[in-house]
Amino acid sequence: MADVAMDLVFGRIMSLLENEVSLLRGVRDEFSEMQLELKSMRAFLTDADRTKALNEGENAWVEAVRDTAYNVEDIIDEFMYHLNRPQVEGKFARFVDRIFRLPKNLWVRHQIATKMRKLLTIIKAMPERHHRYGIDRVEGSSSHDDQLVRKVGQESYLLSDDDVVGIDDSRDLLIGWLTDELQQRVVISVVGMGGSGKTTLVAQAYKSPTIKRHFDCCAWLAVSQTYDIDDLFRKMIKGFFEPIKDLIPSDLSTMSNEQLVKMLVDFLKQRRYILVLDDVWDIYLWREIKVSLPDGRHGSRILLTTRKEDVASFSYGAGCRVHPIRPLGNNEAWVLFCKIAFSRNPTNSCPSETLESIGRELVRKCDGLPLAIVALGGVMSSKQFEFEWNIVRNSLNWELSNNPGLEVVKSILLVSFNDLPYRLKQCFLYCCVFPEDFLIQQKRLIRLWMAEGFVEKISGLIPEEVAERYLMELVGRSMLQVIQRDPFGRPKQFKMHDIMRELALSTSEGEKFCNVYDGREDTIESGVHRLSIQRCVERTNLPADISRLRSFFVFIRDFAPSAPPEFRLLRVLDMEDAQIDQLPDGLENLFNLRYLNLKNTSVNKLPKSIERLRNLQTLNIKRTKVEELPSGIVKLQNLRYLIMWRWIVAADGASHYAFGLRVPSDISKLKNLQVLNYVKAEGDITRQVGNMTQLRSFGIDDVKGADVGDLCTSIQNMKLLHRLYVRLTYSEQVLPMDMLSSPPPDLHKLTLEGGLKNVPRWFRSLHNLTHLTLFLSRLREDPLSHIQDLSNLVELKFLCGAYEGQRLSFRTGFLKLELLQIDRCQQLNEIIIEKGVMPGLQNLQFFQCEALKMLPDGIQHLTRLRNLYLENVSPELVSCIRGEESVDRPKVQHIPTINHFHTTSSGRFLGESLS
């Protein structure tokens, strides 16, 4: 990981030298020389990363080089801070400012040059000083982790049936695939993160008597990251020829590549064979090895394990199947842990409730990862007392780095980390700023990566697209767990595996990349670069030295620092959900700030001075009390995301209302803005936004009927728009959206709030639409015929009287629909669902549809329906499915979850399960 800090700084210097030539007058030579020195330092740290064991002197050398890189980064940020301060307003004022500013800039350049020369002197003295103490280079075995991976694979192969838990179904599935009637050669991939039990599963299938009887010959190859193809061919020959060893030539070790391939092809072409390729890291192996694997149409199989989805899903020019490894369930994980931790107990049971409570917490942290469960069980098997178990529970991060019994877990998982390109290493480590089990939103993380400067510039792609590639790569390498995907299969919400997070924390803190304060320590370490406050003990003392801080996160509502922070070089300030009602003092001085998140706080006003944050990319004031943006917001030309709406809680405490904000009339000056949600339609804003053709997400509130024409024209200009929200002012009757003749072609999400005279005819052209919400539309005609052919529609919501007709007929289409929600459609008394319509529907919800006295006709055809939700519906509808003897009970037998909620006359909200 040591090269991460270095590469980030190296990249920033490169960018300065290439793009900021005019700013470097007087210091260019120093920056150029520093670039050369950093190049050598980066090479040194890369070598250190490949080395498993460093002695104390070598570790000190690595730390000194890394700290130097951070010092260079500080100098760069100081330099940019001083030279890019906003100029004063007014022609005469600017003239006077230039007169007095020139000497100031010369002084700044002189100071920066002096600091750089001093730092260069220190750097050049490093080799001599370390030579003096006998530390000339970093040595060690770079193959330690690779050897450990192979060793674990061998041990997994030797496990007996009694030693494994929770793989019976997967093993039987693999055996079925291996022995089915397909005669063509088939490649079967088992994919999962390091330590997930891939090798164990494959070994259990491979050793099965069924497999031994089915195939003529078999071979098992441990591949790993480093391999020699000729060596693999020789091992294949030895494996396949095992029953007839006399055929193995005595000169096998000296045979050429061509001879080895010919020997394998000649032997295998008339046989049904099975080959296991364990721990495959790239598709190039297949390109090299496939020439030796003939497809004689005898039903041969290749079975491979990999940590990478792109390897598993690669088209191997043959039949392909993929089996993703699933984590062990809670009960299975506990059984496996007990087998190891309490192996001395004949029943493998936990001896006390107290130890069981601690043990289950430890097992939960393993998150179903068999390798971690087994290793942790081994460590705990030697500990008999409660205080010993508590020590491990409270210091798992330290244990992973220092306990020999857990070395295998760290080494196996770090193989995946060390294989990452440096930019992905930064992006992965950054995820540990979020608390344990935190559900990370894709958009939030991408914007943070951009603010930190982790996202490289690639011609033809916007930064968001590059960052999304990074995210897909991390997911594809099993480094992050996807919790939810969008309709197009892209990760939308995910989390870090607990053990991976602990390792990331250990690495981040050791490299001074990031520190997390969770209340376990009395103080926060000084000199940190990224700080995440996740627990507060009374009043948290911030470290005295926070001048290096680049990112500051607060994940607790009652955070109150004991002293005002000095965050001059800060790039990220994320205080979502914190109990603050005003912005921190001195915010306007944070010239380097790229990301400001105040979501769900009580902040009620943005100061005029916010216009000085010229580098700001993201401003999130969603669900705050801010009503209006200051006019100077249009000076923030780097702003890409303006996420905002007021969040008002009604007197009953249950209802919430969102309202758009007043924005300056010249908001269209923000030419880089990608997201503008939500603005209040005042003045000629509906016409002005037509100039913002770069928008991808746009929401507007309080639209008057007279403004709809201008708004529709503006929307037609937004060719890149993916999301659109339009709400009519409550004093108007109809939202004449038919005036929009040509909607944005890539629109994915559409919400229209307000009366519609009829269903807009352009709905039929929204072929990329995934989410459609109609609110207070008061439609009388059945809208389904206009949207039934939208092939990508996943969610459909008719809310708050969106439809005033009596009947909805789902006759055809809706092939991808997963959620249907109908709310307060008071006249609706009949729903018809033809067989074959909505085949993928999973959630069906009805709210206050009191005229609906019976279930939708055809609900029995919705075979994938998992949840039926009823709230304040008619008693007749509920009674027809309550109890096993109810008249419509057979129609809902296939639905796992049926919940009914209703409000009583006294105002109580009660619920019952009808499943």
TrEMBL record:
Disease resistance R13L4/SHOC-2-like LRR domain span: 549-869
Domain of life per record: Eukaryota
Domain called Disease resistance protein winged helix: residue spans: 433-504
InterPro entries, alphabetized: Apaf_helical, Disease_R_plants, LRR_dom_sf, LRR_R13L4/SHOC2-like, NB-ARC, P-loop_NTPase, RX-like_CC, Rx_N
Designated name of the protein: Disease resistance protein RPM1-like
Family matches, as CDD domains: RX-CC_like
Keyword line: Nucleotide-binding, Plant defense, Repeat
GO biological process assignments: defense response to other organism
Domain (NB-ARC): residue spans on this chain: 171-345
Domain Disease resistance N-terminal: 5-94
GO molecular function annotation: ADP binding
Classification of source organism: Eukaryota, Viridiplantae, Streptophyta, Embryophyta, Tracheophyta
Pfam families in alphabetical order: LRR_14, NB-ARC, Rx_N, WHD_DRP
PANTHER family for this protein: DISEASE RESISTANCE PROTEIN RP, DISEASE RESISTANCE PROTEIN RPM1
